[in-house]
Amino acid sequence: MVLLATGISIRLGLQAEALARDGGEPLLRELARGALATGPDALVVSVPADDHTALEVVLRGLPLRCIPVPRGMAQGAALRAALSVLPDSCSGALLLPCDRARTAAADLARLLRAWRQQPQRAVCFAADHGIPGLPALLPQPWWEALDPGNGLALRTLLQGRPDEVSVLEAGATGHALPDHAAG
């Protein structure tokens, strides 16, 4: 599983909430604990290279690995870097964004169930206007197809293989899952 926190300090002004919250757990730690609750083989958190120390402190003690990603790196290259450190035993990778409201556990469970029924297919939620978005689960054979020079690599890959992608509608919690990180 890959938690995409690379843009957390520049998108939607989430850095302060990611690092500290009054009366609660920092957002990034809460998201990481939620991701770990799904029982992944491994959790990799992509963090901005220039902010990685502060974000890693928030994640200290959790069973995960942080991968610093330089700002300006194309999405395809950043995703491939994070996916490359997952164990060989991973037959798929759930990609979770940090730059939006938390995805409900029930929605993640639904995504995982759909993928387990057809593990050769990618599964994702519909984003704005029904286009494939995040969270998304990519089968391992798809990882090499992410174009390292493409800033919209995930969206390009999912849209380029529509017959091999299961797109789930609005979350089980009844609200649409907006997509900012996939494009």
Structural features, described:
30% of the residues lie in helices and 20% in strands. By secondary structure, it is of the alpha/beta class. It has one domain (2-168): Alpha-Beta Complex (Spore Coat Polysaccharide Biosynthesis Protein SpsA, Chain A), CATH 3.90.550. The protein has a seven-stranded mixed beta sheet with strand order 3-2-1-4-6-5-7, with helices on both faces. The longest helix has 13 residues, at 105-117.
Give the helix/strand layout.
Blueprint: E1 2-4, H1 15-19, H2 27-36, E2 44-48, H3 52-59, E3 65-69, H4 75-84, E4 92-97, H5 105-117, E5 122-126, E6 132-139, H6 153-160, E7 165-168
Parallel strand pairs: 1-2, 1-4, 2-3, 5-7
Antiparallel strand pairs: 4-6, 5-6
What attributes does this structure have?
183 residues; alpha/beta; Spore Coat Polysaccharide Biosynthesis Protein SpsA, Chain A; 7-stranded mixed β-sheet; 6 helices; disordered C terminus
